[in-house]
Protein backbone atom coordinates (compact mmCIF):
# COMPACT_ATOMS: atom_id res chain seq x y z
CA UNK A 1 0.00 0.00 0.00
CA UNK A 2 1.20 3.50 -0.74
CA UNK A 3 0.23 6.68 1.07
CA UNK A 4 -0.69 7.30 4.69
CA UNK A 5 -3.79 5.56 6.05
CA UNK A 6 -5.01 6.16 9.59
CA UNK A 7 -5.98 2.78 11.03
CA UNK A 8 -8.05 1.98 14.13
CA UNK A 9 -7.04 -1.66 14.48
CA UNK A 10 -4.03 -3.14 12.78
CA UNK A 11 -2.81 -6.73 12.68
CA UNK A 12 0.82 -7.75 12.74
CA UNK A 13 -0.07 -10.53 10.32
CA UNK A 14 -1.11 -9.39 6.83
CA UNK A 15 -3.87 -10.69 4.63
CA UNK A 16 -2.45 -11.21 1.15
CA UNK A 17 -4.50 -10.32 -1.90
CA UNK A 18 -2.89 -12.74 -4.31
CA UNK A 19 -4.20 -11.24 -7.57
CA UNK A 20 -2.34 -7.98 -6.97
CA UNK A 21 0.33 -9.29 -4.60
CA UNK A 22 -0.85 -6.77 -1.99
CA UNK A 23 -0.72 -7.13 1.79
CA UNK A 24 -3.33 -5.41 3.92
CA UNK A 25 -3.12 -5.04 7.71
CA UNK A 26 -6.36 -3.24 8.63
CA UNK A 27 -9.99 -2.75 7.66
CA UNK A 28 -9.10 0.76 6.46
CA UNK A 29 -6.50 -0.64 4.07
CA UNK A 30 -9.01 -3.22 2.84
CA UNK A 31 -11.60 -0.47 2.26
CA UNK A 32 -9.01 1.64 0.46
CA UNK A 33 -8.09 -1.30 -1.77
CA UNK A 34 -11.71 -2.02 -2.70
CA UNK A 35 -12.49 1.67 -3.23
CA UNK A 36 -9.63 2.01 -5.72
CA UNK A 37 -9.79 -1.42 -7.35
CA UNK A 38 -13.50 -2.24 -7.58
CA UNK A 39 -13.20 -2.44 -11.36
CA UNK A 40 -10.66 -5.24 -11.08
CA UNK A 41 -12.24 -7.53 -8.49
CA UNK A 42 -15.41 -9.60 -8.51
CA UNK A 43 -17.56 -11.57 -6.09
CA UNK A 44 -14.88 -14.24 -5.68
CA UNK A 45 -12.82 -11.67 -3.77
CA UNK A 46 -14.92 -12.34 -0.67
CA UNK A 47 -13.84 -15.65 0.79
CA UNK A 48 -14.34 -17.33 4.16
CA UNK A 49 -10.61 -16.90 4.67
CA UNK A 50 -10.97 -13.10 4.36
CA UNK A 51 -13.91 -13.06 6.76
CA UNK A 52 -11.96 -15.20 9.22
CA UNK A 53 -9.07 -12.71 9.02
CA UNK A 54 -11.41 -9.77 9.71
CA UNK A 55 -12.92 -11.56 12.69
CA UNK A 56 -9.85 -13.12 14.31
CA UNK A 57 -6.89 -10.97 13.27
CA UNK A 58 -8.56 -7.56 13.10
CA UNK A 59 -10.98 -8.33 15.96
CA UNK A 60 -13.90 -6.84 14.02
CA UNK A 61 -16.65 -9.30 14.84
CA UNK A 62 -19.59 -7.13 13.73
CA UNK A 63 -18.19 -6.61 10.23
CA UNK A 64 -17.34 -10.31 10.00
CA UNK A 65 -20.87 -11.28 11.05
CA UNK A 66 -22.39 -8.99 8.43
CA UNK A 67 -20.18 -10.53 5.75
CA UNK A 68 -21.07 -14.05 6.89
CA UNK A 69 -24.77 -13.19 6.62
CA UNK A 70 -24.19 -11.67 3.18
CA UNK A 71 -22.37 -14.81 2.02
CA UNK A 72 -25.12 -17.13 3.29
CA UNK A 73 -27.85 -14.97 1.76
CA UNK A 74 -25.90 -14.78 -1.51
CA UNK A 75 -25.99 -11.00 -1.50
CA UNK A 76 -24.45 -9.29 -4.51
CA UNK A 77 -20.95 -7.89 -4.84
CA UNK A 78 -21.99 -4.29 -4.19
CA UNK A 79 -23.56 -5.10 -0.82
CA UNK A 80 -20.48 -6.98 0.36
CA UNK A 81 -18.13 -4.18 -0.67
CA UNK A 82 -20.28 -1.59 1.08
CA UNK A 83 -20.21 -3.61 4.31
CA UNK A 84 -16.43 -3.16 4.34
CA UNK A 85 -16.51 0.46 3.16
CA UNK A 86 -19.09 1.59 5.73
CA UNK A 87 -17.54 -0.54 8.49
CA UNK A 88 -14.14 1.06 8.01
CA UNK A 89 -15.51 4.59 8.51
CA UNK A 90 -12.60 5.72 6.32
CA UNK A 91 -14.71 7.59 3.75
CA UNK A 92 -17.24 10.39 4.12
CA UNK A 93 -20.95 9.76 3.66
CA UNK A 94 -20.98 11.59 0.32
CA UNK A 95 -18.02 9.55 -0.92
CA UNK A 96 -19.72 6.31 0.11
CA UNK A 97 -22.99 7.23 -1.62
CA UNK A 98 -21.18 8.14 -4.83
CA UNK A 99 -19.11 4.96 -4.68
CA UNK A 100 -22.16 2.76 -4.08
CA UNK A 101 -23.83 4.29 -7.12
CA UNK A 102 -20.71 3.62 -9.16
CA UNK A 103 -20.55 0.02 -7.92
CA UNK A 104 -24.13 -0.64 -8.99
CA UNK A 105 -23.39 0.66 -12.46
CA UNK A 106 -20.48 -1.75 -12.94
CA UNK A 107 -21.78 -4.83 -11.08
CA UNK A 108 -23.37 -6.31 -14.20
CA UNK A 109 -20.36 -5.66 -16.42
CA UNK A 110 -17.62 -8.11 -17.37
CA UNK A 111 -14.07 -7.59 -16.10
CA UNK A 112 -12.96 -6.04 -19.41
CA UNK A 113 -15.97 -3.74 -19.43
CA UNK A 114 -15.12 -2.67 -15.89
CA UNK A 115 -11.55 -1.96 -16.88
CA UNK A 116 -12.73 0.08 -19.86
CA UNK A 117 -15.08 2.05 -17.63
CA UNK A 118 -12.26 2.69 -15.18
CA UNK A 119 -9.97 3.92 -17.96
CA UNK A 120 -12.65 6.38 -19.06
CA UNK A 121 -13.14 7.58 -15.50
CA UNK A 122 -9.38 8.13 -15.10
CA UNK A 123 -9.26 10.01 -18.40
CA UNK A 124 -12.18 12.24 -17.39
CA UNK A 125 -10.26 13.05 -14.19
CA UNK A 126 -7.11 13.94 -16.19
CA UNK A 127 -5.22 10.86 -14.97
CA UNK A 128 -3.83 10.11 -18.41
CA UNK A 129 -1.06 7.69 -17.48
CA UNK A 130 -3.37 5.64 -15.27
CA UNK A 131 -5.95 5.42 -18.05
CA UNK A 132 -3.27 4.50 -20.59
CA UNK A 133 -2.01 1.64 -18.41
CA UNK A 134 -5.54 0.23 -18.07
CA UNK A 135 -6.05 0.35 -21.85
CA UNK A 136 -2.69 -1.35 -22.35
CA UNK A 137 -3.73 -4.15 -19.96
CA UNK A 138 -6.96 -4.66 -21.89
CA UNK A 139 -5.14 -4.90 -25.22
CA UNK A 140 -2.44 -7.16 -23.76
CA UNK A 141 -5.17 -9.65 -22.87
CA UNK A 142 -5.82 -10.24 -26.58
CA UNK A 143 -2.81 -12.57 -26.60
CA UNK A 144 -4.17 -14.72 -23.79
CA UNK A 145 -5.99 -17.84 -25.07
CA UNK A 146 -8.59 -17.83 -22.29
CA UNK A 147 -9.36 -14.15 -22.57
CA UNK A 148 -13.01 -13.25 -23.08
CA UNK A 149 -13.77 -11.79 -26.49
CA UNK A 150 -16.19 -8.86 -26.56
CA UNK A 151 -17.57 -7.41 -29.79
CA UNK A 152 -15.25 -5.59 -32.20
CA UNK A 153 -16.89 -2.32 -31.19
CA UNK A 154 -15.54 -2.81 -27.66
CA UNK A 155 -11.93 -2.92 -28.87
CA UNK A 156 -12.64 -0.03 -31.23
CA UNK A 157 -13.66 1.95 -28.15
CA UNK A 158 -10.44 0.92 -26.38
CA UNK A 159 -8.23 2.00 -29.30
CA UNK A 160 -10.22 5.23 -29.55
CA UNK A 161 -9.67 5.91 -25.84
CA UNK A 162 -5.96 5.18 -26.14
CA UNK A 163 -5.71 7.53 -29.12
CA UNK A 164 -7.33 10.39 -27.21
CA UNK A 165 -4.74 9.98 -24.44
CA UNK A 166 -1.87 9.98 -26.95
CA UNK A 167 -3.25 13.16 -28.50
CA UNK A 168 -3.36 14.83 -25.09
CA UNK A 169 0.27 13.76 -24.62
CA UNK A 170 1.19 15.22 -28.05
CA UNK A 171 2.04 11.84 -29.61
CA UNK A 172 0.01 12.60 -32.72
CA UNK A 173 1.58 9.97 -35.00
CA UNK A 174 0.92 7.20 -32.46
CA UNK A 175 -2.56 8.57 -31.82
CA UNK A 176 -3.34 8.47 -35.52
CA UNK A 177 -2.35 4.79 -35.65
CA UNK A 178 -4.71 4.02 -32.75
CA UNK A 179 -7.58 5.97 -34.34
CA UNK A 180 -7.03 4.05 -37.57
CA UNK A 181 -7.10 0.72 -35.72
CA UNK A 182 -10.35 1.81 -34.09
CA UNK A 183 -11.83 2.72 -37.48
CA UNK A 184 -10.92 -0.70 -38.91
CA UNK A 185 -13.05 -2.26 -36.19
CA UNK A 186 -15.88 0.27 -36.24
CA UNK A 187 -16.27 2.71 -39.15
CA UNK A 188 -18.16 5.26 -37.08
CA UNK A 189 -18.26 8.93 -38.09
CA UNK A 190 -16.80 10.16 -34.79
CA UNK A 191 -13.70 7.99 -35.32
CA UNK A 192 -13.26 9.17 -38.90
CA UNK A 193 -13.59 12.74 -37.67
CA UNK A 194 -10.89 12.08 -35.05
CA UNK A 195 -8.58 10.75 -37.78
CA UNK A 196 -9.07 13.89 -39.88
CA UNK A 197 -8.58 16.22 -36.90
CA UNK A 198 -5.40 14.41 -35.87
CA UNK A 199 -3.98 14.72 -39.37
CA UNK A 200 -4.83 18.43 -39.41
CA UNK A 201 -3.10 18.84 -36.06
CA UNK A 202 -0.02 17.02 -37.36
CA UNK A 203 0.04 19.29 -40.39
CA UNK A 204 -0.15 22.37 -38.18
CA UNK A 205 2.34 21.33 -35.49
CA UNK A 206 4.79 19.12 -37.37
CA UNK A 207 4.65 20.66 -40.86
CA UNK A 208 4.05 17.10 -42.04
CA UNK A 209 2.80 16.17 -45.50
CA UNK A 210 -0.75 15.09 -44.77
CA UNK A 211 -2.89 13.19 -47.27
CA UNK A 212 -6.64 13.36 -46.70
CA UNK A 213 -7.62 11.80 -50.03
CA UNK A 214 -8.70 8.50 -48.46
CA UNK A 215 -10.90 10.27 -45.93
CA UNK A 216 -12.37 12.51 -48.67
CA UNK A 217 -13.37 9.40 -50.63
CA UNK A 218 -15.20 8.08 -47.58
CA UNK A 219 -16.98 11.32 -46.62
CA UNK A 220 -15.96 14.54 -48.35
CA UNK A 221 -18.47 16.67 -46.43
CA UNK A 222 -17.08 15.48 -43.09
CA UNK A 223 -13.52 16.36 -44.12
CA UNK A 224 -14.64 19.79 -45.37
CA UNK A 225 -16.44 20.39 -42.07
CA UNK A 226 -13.37 19.39 -40.05
CA UNK A 227 -11.09 21.68 -42.07
CA UNK A 228 -13.48 24.60 -41.64
CA UNK A 229 -13.85 23.96 -37.89
CA UNK A 230 -10.08 23.65 -37.52
CA UNK A 231 -9.45 26.97 -39.30
CA UNK A 232 -12.06 28.64 -37.12
CA UNK A 233 -10.49 27.16 -33.99
CA UNK A 234 -7.01 28.38 -34.91
CA UNK A 235 -8.34 31.84 -35.78
CA UNK A 236 -10.29 32.11 -32.51
CA UNK A 237 -7.24 31.03 -30.52
CA UNK A 238 -5.12 33.69 -32.18
CA UNK A 239 -7.75 36.32 -31.41
CA UNK A 240 -7.99 35.35 -27.75
CA UNK A 241 -6.47 37.45 -24.98
CA UNK A 242 -4.57 34.44 -23.65
CA UNK A 243 -2.87 33.91 -27.02
CA UNK A 244 -1.84 37.57 -27.17
CA UNK A 245 -0.47 37.38 -23.63
CA UNK A 246 1.58 34.28 -24.40
CA UNK A 247 2.80 35.70 -27.70
CA UNK A 248 4.13 38.75 -25.85
CA UNK A 249 5.87 36.52 -23.32
CA UNK A 250 7.52 34.21 -25.85
CA UNK A 251 8.43 36.83 -28.47
CA UNK A 252 11.62 38.76 -27.75
CA UNK A 253 11.68 42.11 -29.53
CA UNK A 254 15.06 43.29 -28.23
CA UNK A 255 13.55 46.09 -26.16
CA UNK A 256 12.87 44.22 -22.94
CA UNK A 257 15.32 43.21 -20.27
CA UNK A 258 16.63 39.78 -21.27
CA UNK A 259 16.58 38.40 -17.71
CA UNK A 260 12.93 39.45 -17.32
CA UNK A 261 12.10 37.83 -20.67
CA UNK A 262 13.59 34.49 -19.59
CA UNK A 263 11.97 34.68 -16.14
CA UNK A 264 8.51 35.24 -17.62
CA UNK A 265 8.99 32.49 -20.17
CA UNK A 266 10.22 30.00 -17.58
CA UNK A 267 7.29 30.87 -15.32
CA UNK A 268 4.77 29.93 -18.02
CA UNK A 269 6.70 26.79 -18.94
CA UNK A 270 6.78 25.82 -15.27
CA UNK A 271 2.99 26.01 -15.04
CA UNK A 272 2.61 23.91 -18.20
CA UNK A 273 5.06 21.32 -16.90
CA UNK A 274 3.16 20.98 -13.62
CA UNK A 275 -0.14 20.59 -15.48
CA UNK A 276 1.39 17.95 -17.74
CA UNK A 277 2.98 16.08 -14.83
CA UNK A 278 -0.34 15.98 -12.96
CA UNK A 279 -1.98 14.41 -16.00
CA UNK A 280 0.59 11.65 -16.40
CA UNK A 281 1.11 10.95 -12.70
Overview of the molecule:
The chain has a two-stranded antiparallel ribbon with strand order 1-2. Helices cover 69% and strands 5% of the residues. With 281 residues, it is mainly alpha-helical. The model is unreliable at 1-7 (pLDDT under 50). Helix 6 packs antiparallel against helix 7 and helix 8 packs antiparallel against helix 9. A hairpin with a 4-residue loop joins strand 1 and strand 2.
Brief digest:
The chain has helices spanning 27-37, 48-56, 61-72, 77-88, 93-106, 111-124, 128-140, 152-168, 172-185, 189-206, 213-239, 241-250, 258-280; strands at residues 10-17, 22-26.
Topology:
Blueprint: E1 10-17, E2 22-26, H1 27-37, H2 48-56, H3 61-72, H4 77-88, H5 93-106, H6 111-124, H7 128-140, H8 152-168, H9 172-185, H10 189-206, H11 213-239, H12 241-250, H13 258-280
Antiparallel strand pairs: 1-2
Q: In whole angstroms, how far apart are the ends?
A: 17 Å
Question: Which parts are unreliable, with pLDDT below 50 for 5 consecutive residues or more?
Answer: 1-7
Characterize the biggest β-sheet.
Answer: 2 strands, antiparallel
**What percentage of amino acids are in beta strands?**
under 5%
What is the strand arrangement across the widest sheet?
A: 1-2
Radius of gyration, taken over Cα atoms and rounded to an integer in Å: 25 Å
Number of structurally distinct domains: 3
| Structural class determined from secondary elements | mainly alpha
Q: How many extended strands?
A: 2
Q: How many helical elements?
A: 13
Helicity level, as a percent range? 55-70%
Global shape:
extended
Nearest-integer average pLDDT: 85
Could you spell the SSE succession in H and E letters?
EEHHHHHHHHHHHHH
